[in-house]
């Protein structure tokens, strides 16, 4: 049994909302739980492993810089361990906001999200970023070069996850649990696993709140690859209804 304990808490007021940034740890290491409590939405939270703090800071900087330049930041995804954090900027009758959607991991509901209001001149986004920087400076100075992170181009740190003209480019990265193939807003996680029945390949697809999974026994992987090659030789069949490719 693992026990989480609070080591850091910061409350950030934004419009009618409170955001609690709570640094905790368990047997797998440190993580940041960010909870939102507000008048217009049910309480929700996301959990960011410590390795996701740097890209989280870079992504907030990206949206602040884009807005300051008179542009709307495009959608961006951050892949941390077996999770995907999807960012999108939007607006409603109460003003601009940044939506952060967490999918993957062991979330039984498919995903959770936060809505961070921008505030006048992005005041709330800047306060949120300042809180993240304080956590990095006070608790992760041994693993995060914050000055280098703040002085660099934030878009460069998340360029492979930004939507837009390169949204259909296939990007292959290597994570601790295995390779991850990203195509636009789709992310495929490949993991070699084993149980009492033997070894197998687990392929998990995450796309927003949609999650699919394939489990291929080790002895069938070669035939699975053969089946893909045969399917690639066929002419594509037109879908009867318009669907996302």
From TrEMBL:
<dbReference type="GO" id="GO:0005634">
    <property type="term" value="C:nucleus"/>
</dbReference>
<dbReference type="InterPro" id="IPR006628">
    <property type="entry name" value="PUR-bd_fam"/>
</dbReference>
<dbReference type="Pfam" id="PF04845">
    <property type="entry name" value="PurA"/>
</dbReference>
<dbReference type="GO" id="GO:0000977">
    <property type="term" value="F:RNA polymerase II transcription regulatory region sequence-specific DNA binding"/>
</dbReference>
<keyword id="KW-0238">DNA-binding</keyword>
<dbReference type="GO" id="GO:0032422">
    <property type="term" value="F:purine-rich negative regulatory element binding"/>
</dbReference>
<dbReference type="GO" id="GO:0000981">
    <property type="term" value="F:DNA-binding transcription factor activity, RNA polymerase II-specific"/>
</dbReference>
<protein>
    <recommendedName>
        <fullName>Transcription factor Pur-alpha 1</fullName>
    </recommendedName>
</protein>
<comment type="similarity">
    <text>Belongs to the PUR DNA-binding protein family.</text>
</comment>
């Amino acid at each position: 049994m693992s026990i989480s304990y609070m080591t850091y808490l910061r409350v950030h007021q934004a419009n009618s909302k409170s955001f609690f940034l709570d640094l905790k740890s368990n047997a797998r290491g440190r993580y940041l739980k960010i909870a939102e409590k507000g008048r217009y939405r049910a309480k929700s939270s996301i959990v960011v492993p410590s390795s996701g703090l740097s890209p989280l800071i870079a992504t907030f900087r990206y949206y602040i810089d884009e807005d300051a330049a008179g542009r709307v930041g495009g959608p961006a995804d951050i892949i941390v361990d077996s999770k995907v954090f999807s960012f999108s900027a939007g607006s409603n009758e109460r003003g601009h906001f940044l939506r952060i959607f967490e999918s993957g991991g062991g979330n039984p509901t498919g995903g959770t999200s936060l809505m961070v209001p921008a505030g006048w001149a992005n005041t709330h986004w800047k306060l949120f970023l300042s809180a993240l920087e304080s956590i990095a400076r006070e608790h992760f100075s041994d693993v995060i070069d914050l000055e280098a992170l703040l002085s660099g181009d934030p878009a460069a740190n998340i360029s492979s996850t930004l939507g837009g003209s390169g949204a259909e480019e296939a990007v292959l990265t290597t994570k601790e649990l295995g390779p991850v193939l990203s195509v636009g807003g789709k992310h495929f996680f490949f993991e070699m696993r084993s149980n009492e029945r033997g070894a197998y390949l687990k392929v998990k697809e995450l796309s927003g709140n949609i999650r699919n999974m394939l489990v291929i026994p080790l002895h069938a992987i070669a035939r699975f690859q053969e089946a893909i090659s045969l399917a690639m030789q066929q002419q594509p069949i037109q879908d009867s209804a318009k669907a996302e490719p």
